[in-house]
Design brief:
alpha+beta; four-stranded mixed β-sheet; 3 helices
Length: about 130
Amino acid sequence: MIPATVGAFILDRVKNEIFATPEEAEQAVEAIEESIIANDDHIGTVYTDADGNAIGQAVRMLNVAIYVVSNEQSDPEKDLLAAMRNPESEVIFHTDGGRVSRVIYIPPEQPAALAGQDVKGFRADDI
């Protein structure tokens, strides 16, 4: 998958070079988002509590980037899952204009074997 910053850059280039008007560019973006939504079977899945009462539906957040802070020698996918499952992990939310734009998972500790290695942040799209 394309990271959000690269995708945004490409989208801007496409808007500026291919489409004559901002309306045409907006229609192209909407078509891409509609395609993503149409191909996602999880959207609209109803979740229930332990008693079987509906608590809500799954909604895909198209403009929210998910990151994990991981070690260069580590597996970012495993680190993301571990951080999401660990209640001691730090979770940072970034907002732009009042909307959540980024969620960053920071595990409480990296394994001692990896201490001193270069720490990097990874987007979920990069995993």
